[in-house]
């Protein structure tokens, strides 16, 4: 029987992944943890506890006491926030992962680990179109540098200690449930909330900034499919490229007008423009699609339809 630990369960990915894993493995077998409090649906549908991944002693005790077999380590400081406090962000992103890798090495019950990488591992010397799985990688952000270093550590632990660690280079993830925190792709979520609430949005990257994105449902399916795959089917033991679609603020705002005809957008690019410009516009994920037999289901029209409907539902519920 699987017993799963989620670190970062109150975050953008964790809050959706926890509920999905509980459906598959049973509520009682998925332990949600975070350094901050989680939403009621996470706390009421199964175990939830405060846990800081930086506290290695508490972490290993937790894993041993609950006989954890799989760990999803989702806690990280994202690209925009990391630029504000680079050294602290480096410590949180790297030390947290190193604690997880050590636990996975030391505790025999732990059979698999998931850790998210990002398109931020790429940099300005990477081909901008269809960035290959193996290519030039010279990230210019502290977040990207930490993700690239962490990928190398994951492969090191996989080869040297046979830790089964699996990872995806997530594009920007679009969801309506929990707000993202401090990423460069956050505009792709903010734009929907502001369009519905205020009918206008001031975007922090320019109109034609094309970026790789994916709807959260697709990302959750890709993640669980990767974790459920036979290890012998996996050809990559660092992190797989993962691709959904490419979106720019101009494209999204045009699509939003199908639902909010008087929506207006203006542009006030900040330091995140430079980060966005250093990342590829699209990513080649043929290795993942071949090994996992997976493809995304959400295009821009479908994403917009779901985002608009769900945000309207949330607003209605908050008024009643
Ligand atoms: C960010 O913008 O920092 C993240 C990412 C692409 O990893 N969403």
Word description of this protein:
- This protein is of the alpha/beta class.
- It has twelve helices and 14 strands.
- The strands form four sheets. Strands 3-2-1-4-5-7 form a six-stranded parallel β-sheet, sandwiched between helices. The protein has a three-stranded parallel β-sheet with strand order 6-8-12.
- Helix 2 (40-45) links the parallel strand 2 and strand 3.
- Helix 3 packs parallel to helix 5 (86-106) and helix 7 (187-198) packs across helix 12.
- It starts with a strand and ends with a helix.
- The model has no long low-confidence stretch (mean pLDDT 97).
- The structure holds 2-amino-3-ketobutyric acid.
- 2-amino-3-ketobutyric acid binds next to loops.
- 2-amino-3-ketobutyric acid (AKB) binds at residues 78-79, 118-120, 143, 170, 172, 183-185.
Top keywords for this entry?
12 helices, Rossmann fold, six-stranded parallel sheet, three-stranded parallel sheet, globular, UDP-galactose 4-epimerase, domain 1, single chain, 320 residues, alpha/beta, binds 2-amino-3-ketobutyric acid
């Amino acid at each position: 029987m699987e017993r799963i630990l989620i670190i970062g369960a109150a975050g953008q990915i964790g809050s959706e992944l926890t509920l999905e894993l509980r459906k598959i493995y049973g509520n009682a077998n998925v332990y949600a943890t975070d350094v901050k409090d989680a939403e009621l649906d996470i706390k009421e549908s199964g175990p939830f506890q405060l846990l800081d991944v930086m506290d290695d002693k508490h972490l290993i005790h937790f894993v041993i006491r609950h006989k954890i077999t799989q760990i999803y380590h989702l806690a990280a400081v994202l690209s925009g926030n990391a630029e504000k406090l680079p050294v602290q962000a480096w410590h949180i992103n790297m030390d947290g992962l190193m604690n997880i890798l050590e636990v996975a090495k030391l505790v025999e019950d732990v059979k698999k680990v998931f850790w998210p990488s990002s398109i931020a591992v790429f940099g300005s010397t990477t081909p901008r179109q269809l960035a290959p799985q193996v290519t030039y990688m010279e990230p210019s952000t502290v977040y990207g540098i930490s993700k690239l270093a962490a990928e190398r550590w994951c492969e090191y632990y996989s080869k040297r200690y046979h830790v089964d660690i699996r990872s995806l280079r997530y594009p920007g993830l679009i969801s309506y449930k929990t707000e993202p925190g401090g990423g460069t792709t956050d505009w792709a979520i903010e734009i929907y909330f502001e369009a519905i609430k205020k009918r206008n949005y001031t975007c922090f990257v320019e109109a034609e900034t094309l970026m790789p994105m994916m709807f959260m449902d697709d990302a959750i399916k890709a993640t669980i499919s990767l974790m459920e795959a036979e290890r012998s089917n996996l050809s990559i033991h660092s992190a797989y490229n993962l691709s959904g679609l490419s979106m720019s603020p101009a494209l999204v705002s045009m699509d939003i007008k199908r639902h909010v005809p008087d929506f207006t957008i203006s542009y006030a690019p900040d330091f995140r423009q430079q980060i966005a410009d250093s990342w590829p516009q699209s990513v080649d994920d043929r290795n993942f699609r071949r090994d996992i037999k997976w493809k995304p289901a959400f295009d821009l029209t479908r994403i917009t339809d779901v985002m608009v409907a769900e945000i309207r539902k949330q607003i209605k519920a908050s008024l009643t």
